């Protein structure tokens, strides 16, 4: 059974930093790209970032470029999202996501709130 468990969210002031983690199990983690997606209540999900299997290729939505950095540790079956210079508009529930055998899987999400 594919499982994704996010952690690391919380309340942070504007300009602050958080590091999200997503622990994966139930599939060959190192063989699949991983993504981070965020969602604000009442709005559709927004893709944030993606990392390839080996970690050599990363992509970001324009609004987080230069502030967020995605990485992965295949030995620990974990993907990370380092978020710096956080803004109030980054407030959302953050999910890690992958697609295994044409089925998309999401974790339960972790809340990030950026507020003074």
As residue ranges, the low-confidence spans are none
**DSSP strand count:** 11
Q: Give the terminus-to-terminus CA distance.
A: 40 Å
Question: What percent strand?
Answer: over 45%
CA-atom Rg in angstroms: 13 Å
Shape: globular
Mean of residue pLDDT values: 97
- Assembly state here? single chain
Number of contiguous helices: 0
Along the chain, the helix and strand elements come as EEEEEEEEEEE
Helix content: under 10%
Class of secondary structure makeup: mainly beta
- For the report, how would you describe the main beta sheet? 7 strands, mixed
How would you sum up this structure, described in words?
The protein has 116 residues and is an all-beta fold. The protein is 0% helix and 53% strand. The chain contains no helices and 11 strands. The strands form 2 sheets. Strands 2, 4, 5, 6, 9, 10 and 11 form a 7-stranded mixed beta sheet that branches. The protein has a 4-stranded antiparallel beta sheet with strand order 1-3-8-7, with no helix packed on it. Strand 5 and strand 6 form a beta hairpin. The protein is globular.
């Amino acid at each position: 059974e594919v499982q994704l468990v996010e952690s690391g969210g919380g309340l942070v002031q504007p300009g602050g930093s958080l590091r999200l983690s997503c622990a994966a199990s139930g599939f060959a983690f190192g063989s699949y790209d991983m993504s981070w997606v965020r969602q604000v209540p009442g709005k559709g999900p927004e893709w944030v970032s993606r990392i390839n299997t080996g970690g050599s290729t990363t992509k970001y939505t324009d609004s987080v470029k230069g502030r967020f950095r995605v990485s992965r540790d295949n030995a620990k079956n974990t993907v990370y999202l380092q978020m710096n210079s956080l803004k109030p508009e980054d407030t959302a529930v953050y999910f890690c996501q992958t697609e295994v055998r044409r089925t998309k899987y999401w974790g339960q999400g972790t809340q990030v709130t950026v507020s003074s």
